Amino acid sequence: MPFPFDISATEGRARTGVLRTPRGDIRTPAFMPVGTAATVKAMTVEQVKATGADILLGNTYHLMLRPGPERMERLGGLHKFMGWDKPILTDSGGFQVMSLAGISKVKEDAVTFASHIDGSKHVLSPERSIEIQADRIGADISMQLDQCVAYPAAKPAAKAAMELSVRWGARSKAAFGTRETQALFGIQQGSTFEDLRRQSSEQLQEIGFDGYAIGGLAVGEGHQAMCEVLDYAPDMLPSDRPRYLMGVGKPIDLVEAVWRGVDMFDCVLPTRAGRHGQAWTWDGPMNLKNARFAEDQDPLDPTIDGPSSQYSKAYLHHLIRADEILGKTLLSWHNIAFFQALTAAMREAIQHGRFEQFRRDFHARHTSN
After folding, report:
1. What share of residues in the chain are helix, strand, coil (percent, to 5)?
2. Which residues does the annotation mark as catalytic?
């Protein structure tokens, strides 16, 4: 395994540790801000670093459309292109198989896409996905190409997608080969069916990956159904490798997933919410568009390190209502900083054997507001 994963403490199924990469350590539980198109929206890389993020996520589908993988390679890869010197994980493009179902066609060999930008045709096979991620983009962690199904999924459809994902996983691994400074993660699929996820996990482990993701959640099933899957899915994966829950999620989702043994997360929520006037806090989400903040002179959240704490809620309310770019930047910065503060608090709680109490307190504050 190219990246050592040192687990320093556990509490129940929750654990905290460090995934060590040549470009820096990733402290787990870890939240990866999403830099879909070589940028975390509305933020500079210096601002993202200031929030405490150890790793970013880039998206293969979007980057292969523009600026294009070959151009990215000529420009020195994604790290140099965007000025980020820490680790980067890239999504393989598999999520777009589902989310762009109307303009994509799945076959055994590959997925054929019509670009949502200009309608041009693109073919993404497991081999091409690995080439783009590992060779052209230069990702530190690449993901196997997989097929994700939306919720609710009929079991035959979920089974077919899971089995195709396993076959694509084997092809992804063969294309990736053995590398000393890059890692490849497999993706567990199976929708909400326990036996399918078990089959997926067993077959992925036979192939052998550097880490394992739990895919096919946060696709419409809701918090309760997601937790029911996480009651068993993480334990099906190797305990000595990182477990990554893809596309999740709200703060309460992160807390519940960590409680069930998950180590890594990504989600567009912090920046998307920030651009639309929503701030995440220890007491839940706050909509700064609301008129009740128009003359509120208190800071947004003085416990979160970032520039948003220097301004009043009234000022942030004004910026959002006036559709000023600064408002989008300040709230995006705040939300990314909050998610980093949340994962840091969880790491500390697990390290000191206080995570069960942390979880109870977090639930109490969120459900009372």
Report:
1. 45, 20, 35
2. 91, 266
Structure-token match 């092809």, residue found: 171
The radius of gyration of the chain's CA atoms, rounded to the nearest angstrom, is: 20
- Identify whether the C-beta of residue 49 lies closer than 8 Å to the C-beta of residue 73: no
φ and ψ at 253, to 5 degrees?
Answer: -65, -40
Report the distance separating Cα 41 and Cα 21, nearest Å: 25
Round to whole Å and give the CA distance between 239 and 359. 22
What is the layout of strands, in order, in the sheet containing 121-124? Answer: 104-106, 111-114, 121-124
CA distance 152 to 93: 21
104 to 98, 143, 172: CA distances (angstroms): 8, 19, 20
* Structural contact between residues 214 and 188, judged by C-beta atoms closer than 8 angstroms: yes
Using alpha carbons, select from 50, 46, 137, 94 the residue that is nearest to residue 334: 50
For the record, the structure tokens of 344 come out as 């840091």
Whole-number Å distance between alpha carbons of 141 and 95: 17
Helix axes 155-176, 194-207, angle to 10 degrees: 10
Distances (CA, A) of 236 to 24, 83, 240: 28, 37, 12
Compute the average pLDDT of residues 123-143: 97
Nearest to 88 by CA among 158, 18, 137: 137
Question: pTM higher than 0.90, yes or no?
Answer: yes
Summarize pLDDT for 18-59 with one digit per residue, the tens.
999 999 999 999 999 999 999 999 999 999 999 999 999 999
